[in-house]
Amino acid sequence: MDRFTLQGLNEARGQRQAAILITNLASGLVRLVRENDLGLDLMIEPALGEILPQRFRSAHSGLVRTAEGDEFFLTVHVPPPRLVVIGAVHIAQALAPMARIAGFDVTIIDPRTAFATQERFAGVALMPHWPEEALRRLPLDPFTAVAALTHDPKIDDMPLQAALAANCFYVGALGSRKTHAKRVERLTAAGLEEADVARIRAPIGLAIGAQSPAEIAVSVLAEIVDALRKRGMAA
């Protein structure tokens, strides 16, 4: 790998961007393709153009053989997925450890210091600040999931707007359909487009009949994993 390719890879990783190193096994040539470059005229094998989006979603490296018999090795570099939970509530207490086991970096944001405590969230990154301040320190990106769980518009609405603006791969909010209808009214009144607001998963979680906080956490994590593995796919 030449130094310019290595520099490009390091830049992509530093900026939490997904990238794939394409190594032509016959020639030894190595090429870097960032996920942000897909759709551009990259002058690559058509077969690779079809498989790269899937590899970005799966994060799976491996050998690819084209119909013409050419062989390439794809080395996939995808940022570790993050989960930012707004609200140090009971659902978050169950969701955080499960998400960590599933491979997510988890951060809990809640300005209510009585809730955001290490006693309730042992070993989890806590930010006991208002979301406006917390997200200045922890910028959102397309490899971040945001789950707003407080039921409090003063806490939830701002990070939901920030998550939509940052194109987070998952944006979910707790609340009934009636609660969400009021949320939609607030967000559209704040200037958000209806299409953007429609990206919010609400009521949050897959419809599995969850009742307890732990069951709701399971449904939320399942929905997040589903969204992660379907990034970039048409709805």
TrEMBL record:
<feature type="domain" description="XdhC Rossmann">
    <location>
        <begin position="83"/>
        <end position="224"/>
    </location>
</feature>
<dbReference type="InterPro" id="IPR052698">
    <property type="entry name" value="MoCofactor_Util/Proc"/>
</dbReference>
<dbReference type="Pfam" id="PF13478">
    <property type="entry name" value="XdhC_C"/>
</dbReference>
<protein>
    <submittedName>
        <fullName>XdhC family protein</fullName>
    </submittedName>
</protein>
<dbReference type="InterPro" id="IPR027051">
    <property type="entry name" value="XdhC_Rossmann_dom"/>
</dbReference>
